[in-house]
Amino acid sequence: LSLFLYAVQPTECFLTQPEEEQESTAKAKKRKKKKISDILEKSAPKPGVPKDLQDLLSQHFDARRSVIEIEELKLPDSCFLPANDLTHSFSSYLKEICPKWAKLRKNHKETKSVVILVICSSALRSLELIKSMTAFKGDCRVLKLFAKHIKIKEQMTMLEKGIFHIGVGTPGRIKALVEQDGLCLNSTKYMILDWNWRDQKLRRMMDIPEIKKETIDLLELRIIKLCREGSVKLGLF
């Protein structure tokens, strides 16, 4: 009997080892999260539409606001401009949504404000968009509204002393300028979100948690109210 037990003991140890390894491998796979780039590489890019932003705002606010507050933060379909179908350059898109740009540009006389506000994910992307709007902007002044290498006081001074028609920058800096009364949105007619562009990791601006939060904060701060009043139109480029 003792010899029999001794003989089968190694067999029992050998049988349990693969099960432990399988369990460990399963846990490791479960812990590994799917990256946004892994998902996007397998799917064709789809152009953003107003419902995408509306759904994103609903998901963000639903757990944080009362029913009445949520209703006040809803964006009506009427506040949206035609969305980019991924065939446009930035200049051609701006020409489509703002056919009377020459007149708007000429009539804009207010300091501390811009007619068109463009929101994107980084300083580098802001510079790319500024370069790519040459065919549209004509004889107007464009202001960089991001934090990299530019102090907020410098931007506030420029806005106070000069007339600027287009502002291009990041949501965090633009929100700070609005909060500090450096940028007034009452003269703004168009707000464009750089919605479809993807960085090297294939992330859109709303796929980056910090940029997403800052953009929603900016929208809630003033833009949603202006959209609901009809003075600002939103575009997804």
From TrEMBL:
One Pfam family from the record: CMS1
**InterPro entries on file:** Cms1 (IPR032704), P-loop_NTPase (IPR027417)
Q: Name one GO cellular component term.
A: nucleus
State the encoding gene.
Cmss1
Q: Which organism is it from?
A: Nothoprocta ornata
| Name of the molecule in the record | CMS1 protein
Domain of life of the native organism? Eukaryota
